Amino acid sequence: MQILLGSVVSLKSGGPLMTVEEFGEHADARCSWFVDQAVQREWFALVALQPQESPKAGAVSRAKKVVK
Length: 68
Description:
By secondary structure, the chain is mainly β. The chain has strands spanning about 10, 20-25, 30-35, 40-45, 50. It contains no helices and five strands.
């Protein structure tokens, strides 16, 4: 599966599902994801990302909630 703009990805080492927003000049991608209701954005090397299936609309997330 190829990584395109709008692709749902995660880090190969684990972590939240993220959306690819743009590609950089150095084989990297800017990704966004939500923590609570705040959007987070960061650049990641493309080799560190793996494509994921897009969650279906209205689907319940099975991700574990972290309690602080």
